[in-house]
Write a structure and sequence with these properties.
This protein is an alpha+beta fold. The chain contains 8 helices and 10 strands. The strands form 2 sheets. Strands 2, 5, 6, 7, 8, 9 and 10 form a 7-stranded mixed beta sheet that branches. Strands 1-4-3 form a 3-stranded antiparallel beta sheet, with helices on one face.
Length: about 300
């Protein structure tokens, strides 16, 4: 039976990150990172848009152990938990240990985001006629996989049962504008975003502002894709994973064993951190997907990004 006690989320007595006084140049959604190497300051002016700075990364991940973990969670009452929730929890845990991947670029400056905001496009029904909507889930870096699952399920359920999310309502208002006025309005929003004056109400509903965006191509029965990053907003990472397939895995003794795998493809904004840092972070994400039982504990402390 599905666990409907969504209100039983783990709560925390103190913020995950040290509360800092807002300084000149900080934004509503993050603080400016001021101690980066010179190259990091210059690169947003050389690579002005995300299309110039996209890197593509692909891996194949064994999910045999993850599927056994999910089977156990289903017996424990979380029958809706899927591989998506494990991947999200792996990302959240990695941000707790490698906070640099939670930076973003706006106005050609680099910022450390105040929280973890994950975005996803969902359908109310799996049909051609069903419209898409975007949801945004706020995670705490201390969250375990159970908390990630419950937070995601709560937001997704509300989106599917509502007549329209806040994003849908905002988009509907914009589409009522004449074409030229809409074009001018979007240009104004870009300018406000550049200088850090975009209203928080818009930041909260915008699917283009956040830590990362994820899509499950496997749910559509196709392999993972390399999805571009958006020049509007400040999303620095797009994760895609594909349908499950079976292949041979080589054991330590040299023998072969049939295992289940997914393709895992990521597009990143290379300007927020260097390749060595990214590699370290994605190795952690993979390790957590391979061993999701490591995600069952909550953290007492997390790593702070540099000043």
């Amino acid at each position: 039976m599905e666990d409907n006690k969504l209100e039983e989320l783990i709560t925390y007595d103190t913020p995950a990150y040290v509360e800092r006084k807002r300084r000149w140049g900080d934004r509503k959604e993050g603080r400016r990172v001021r101690t980066l190497p010179p190259m990091n300051y210059v690169s947003p002016f050389i690579m002005k848009v995300r299309a110039d700075s996209q890197n593509h990364f692909e891996d194949m991940i064994d999910i045999t152990n993850a599927e056994a973990f999910l089977a156990r969670k289903h017996k424990e009452g979380m029958s809706g938990m899927t591989l998506l929730h494990i991947i999200l929890a792996a990302y959240v845990r990695t941000v707790a240990e490698r906070p640099g991947i939670n930076r973003f670029i706006s106005g050609q400056r680099i910022f450390a985001r105040k929280n973890i905001e994950c975005t996803m496009t969902v359908k109310k029904e799996m049909s051609l006629e069903s419209p898409d909507t975007c949801i945004k889930i706020i995670f705490d870096p201390r969250d375990n996989v159970d908390n990630v699952y419950k937070k995601f399920r709560k937001v997704a359920t509300e989106a599917k049962e509502s007549n329209g999310t806040d994003f849908d309502k905002t988009a509907k208002k914009l589409m009522m504008l004449p074409r030229l006025i809409l074009r001018a309005t979007v240009s104004l929003l870009r300018l406000l975003d550049y200088v850090g004056l975009l209203p928080k109400a818009l930041l909260d509903v915008s699917p283009f502002h956040g830590s990362m965006i994820i899509t499950s191509m496997g749910s559509l029965g196709i392999p993972a894709i390399y999805h571009h990053l958006y020049d509007f907003g400040n999303l620095p990472i797009f994760i895609s994973y594909g349908n499950i397939f079976t292949a041979d895995a080589i054991k330590r003794d040299g023998t072969r064993e049939r295992h289940r795998f997914i393709t895992f493809r990521v597009v990143t904004d290379e300007r927020i951190c260097d390749g060595y840092y990214y590699a370290s972070a994605f190795k952690k994400i993979k390790r957590y997907i391979l061993h999701p039982e490591m995600l069952e504990n909550t953290l007492d402390r997390v790593e702070e990004d540099i000043d």
